[in-house]
Amino acid sequence: MKQVPRSWSAASPMALLENWQRALLECLPAALRKPFLKEQVRMVLGLTGDGAEARLEQGEDVQPLEVLVRPDAEDLRSLAARAEQAGADVIIAAPLNAVLLRQFRLPAQVKDNLDRVIAYEIDRLTPFSGNEIYFDYRLLPSQVEEQLLIDLAALKRDRVDLWIQGLAGAGRAARQLHWPGAWDGANLLPSSARREKRGDQ
Q1: What is the overall mean pLDDT for the chain?
Q2: Among 50, 87, 145, 163, which is least packed, fewest CB within 10 Å?
Q3: What b/e string do you get for 181-195 counting C-beta neighbours within 10 Å, with b at 16 or more?
Q4: pTM for the full model?
């Protein structure tokens, strides 16, 4: 089940410190901010049909890897080894046409249990049952005080499970599953399937 994004009060001390540092840096002009930023290396797997195009990204630097990789054990072991060597987070980018995007409203009184309510309503909100999909959502500003405005993204698990399970089996589980044009911080992966950020390097 997807979890509601943590509030500042519920976040760990390390997460609070990172948020504080990020907020402090954002107050600086871009020219002064750049020397303090270390861009994380990311291995992005852009899914295309039965395969994926892999690339390494660090800031604006993009290095294409194999032209096409497949979710078989040999290819995924090779990718996992390269990601490990580069210290890269693995990001899976699903094709946009595979992601169901919709906007809907819920009563404002369900806000404290929003994760549970959306999981319960997922059969009504999408053509799929909850065990068929990965999903994420975000709250949007609403002009109707009594209602929540919500963006929902859903992806059928069978489009990506070979990649998710194969990468985990190869020792480099994906940290994020998103799509082209996804909102900032979007992640369709359930927390149980993600590679944690600390203590796993």
Answers
A1: 85
A2: 145
A3: ebeeebbbbeeebbb
A4: 0.77
